[in-house]
Design brief:
It is a single chain. With 533 residues, the chain is α/β, with parallel strands linked by helices. It is 24% helix and 10% strand. The chain has 12 helices and 11 strands. The strands form 2 sheets. The chain has an 8-stranded parallel beta barrel, surrounded by 4 helices. Strands 10-11 form a two-stranded antiparallel sheet.
Length: 533
């Protein structure tokens, strides 16, 4: 599409400034609480350099606080240095983009240097083939690195725009097949840069122009958006013609849908038919219906509606359509007081609730049994005293013969079997030795442990009574042992020379040693005449 060179746009700065004042556009930053309006990202090309960045808030204010989300500029295509992004104004656009997360930076990138020098087709074909061979890959790699360094790795790249026309050196018609290969090489080189998130927009002119734009489509793998530049000019006389013509607006929408791509309108505006508000209204309606990824109007004369004052009717139509609706004044609804009718208060009779006493069940007191601690009594072992009866011996009237020392057999003491007392230990009676009367010998009862000590007597040896050893009770009670019966002395015959006197040691000791007696043999001699029988 023929139009004034973009570098000539800067000559209109004075005119633009005067136009801003004439239209009453506010020269202050829009308020932060301005309404959002449509959710479709919208912008305008206002200038390629810093002035374009500076004018964005004024355009927003002119549109009643409309959020301008798209910043749009072009790289110069006169030298490869410009195509590589070695221009200072990119820093200003990158700073604007980074200020808000929902903003979008759109950058038109030429595919050849001397891009507006009217290079003939045969030279364009040679340049296309060189690009397809990879001779220019390094330039686009440097551009990608530059954008990533500036913090705008998600830039929308409108690469080789209007390739189906006749204006630019990067046009497609001289060699469509190699042109598609060249596009692929550029996209591949830029996507190979670490950190990039670029979106590549394929944006032809509306209509056939020099070649049907679908013949230049490089493929779904290297295209993200199917765009279209659509100005108010032929082919077609009406807006309906722009929709239905071959390779027109309808064709773009259907082609993008078939390939699973979103659409865009990087450039649109007035042109051949002058101030045409109908075109502006229809174009904005088309955009609202088909919801492109973004759209930007070319806002300088003869295309614009804000900086170009020769299109006042279109300017009004544009402003009315995009200015967010503000709520009208709120008319307060008169408040009619409702009469308050007092509700009679009927007292509710208070019925006393009978109080049912809770029976008190006494808790039985269970006495804790007192278990007495058994006290083991210490047994006192009394010493039993054996009672020895004194035998009555008749005294015969006989002369004093020499009485031989009677041989009194010493009874063999029998060791008593120890008796294990019952839980109540009986008090044993320990016998005390009693000196017998003269002429009555006292048997000697040996003690268990020490040697028996005889008691001297004038004529009869003193018997020794064994002292019983105290019996210590054992915790283990064995079966009681029955004492072995001791041999009983044989009683002397009647009129014998043996006199035997029974001994009484008491009940306890008699059970222990058995019945005992002391026998004395007196031999007077049968011929002595002293024996009376």
């Amino acid at each position: 599409m023929p139009r004034p060179r973009r570098r000539l746009a800067s000559t209109c700065i004075g005119t633009v400034t005067a136009g801003l004042l004439a239209t009453g556009a506010a020269l202050a930053t829009p308020e932060k609480d301005r309404p959002e309006g449509s959710d479709i990202a919208m912008g305008a090309y206002l200038d390629y350099g810093p002035p374009g960045v500076a004018r964005i808030p004024y355009l927003s204010s002119w549109l009643g606080g409309k959020n301008i989300r798209v910043g749009h500029t072009y790289l110069p295509g006169d030298k490869w240095a410009g195509i590589e992004g070695r221009v200072s104004f990119l820093e200003h656009w990158a700073e604007w983009r980074r200020a808000e997360d929902d903003r979008m930076f759109v950058l038109n990138v030429p595919m050849q240097e001397r891009n507006e020098d009217r290079v003939p087709d045969h030279q364009v074909a040679q340049l296309i083939r060189a690009g397809a061979e990879g001779q220019y890959d390094r330039h686009f790699q440097r551009l990608a690195e530059r954008l990533v360094e500036l913090g705008v790795p998600d830039t929308v790249i409108v690469l080789g725009w209007e390739m189906n026309g006749v204006t630019y050196t990067h046009r497609c018609a001289p060699d469509p097949e190699n042109w598609k290969v060249y596009w692929k090489r550029i996209v591949t080189a830029m996507r190979a840069v670490p950190g990039q998130e670029f979106t590549f927009d394929f944006a032809p002119n509306r209509g056939v122009d020099a070649i049907g734009w679908t013949k230049c489509y490089p493929g779904d793998d290297v295209v993200d958006v199917v765009g279209m530049d659509s100005y108010d000019q032929g082919p077609g006389q009406t807006f309906d013609d722009q929709i239905t013509q071959p390779y027109g607006l309808q064709h773009q929408v259907e082609f993008a849908k078939a390939h699973g791509k979103s659409i865009s309108y990087p450039e649109w505006g007035l042109f051949r038919r002058g101030d045409n508000p109908e075109y502006v209204r229809r174009m904005l309606k088309w955009i609202a219906e088909h919801k492109p990824l973004y759209h930007t109007i070319t806002d300088y004369c003869p295309h614009g509606v804000w900086q170009c004052k020769q299109n006042p009717e279109s300017s009004k139509a544009f402003r009315d359509a995009l200015t967010p609706e503000r709520p009208g004044p709120v008319v307060p609804t008169p408040v009619v007081p409702t009469p308050v009718v007092p509700t009679p208060v009927v007292p509710t009779p208070v019925v006393p609730t009978p109080v049912v006493p809770t029976p008190q069940v006494p808790t039985p007191q269970v006495p804790t049994p007192q278990v007495p601690t058994p006290q083991a009594p210490t047994p006192e072992i009394p010493t039993p005293t054996p009672v020895v009866p004194t035998p009555v011996v008749p005294t015969p009237q006989v002369p004093k013969p020499e009485v031989p020392t009677p041989q009194v057999p010493t009874p063999t003491p029998v060791a008593p079997s120890p008796l294990v007392p019952a839980p109540v230990t009986p008090s044993p009676a320990v016998p005390l030795p009693v000196t017998p009367s003269p002429l009555v010998p006292t048997p000697e009862v040996p003690e268990p442990d020490p040697e028996p000590t005889p008691r001297p007597s004038p004529a009869v040896p003193t018997p020794q009574v064994p002292a019983p050893s105290p019996v210590t009770p054992s915790p283990v009670v064995p079966s009681p042992l029955t004492p072995k019966p001791l041999p009983q002395p044989t009683p002397p015959p009647v009129n014998s020379k043996h006199w035997c006197v029974p001994l009484n040691f008491g009940e306890w000791l008699s059970k222990l040693v058995g019945k005992q007696s002391v026998c004395i043999k007196l031999d007077f001699g049968g011929e002595s005449g002293l024996w009376p029988f």
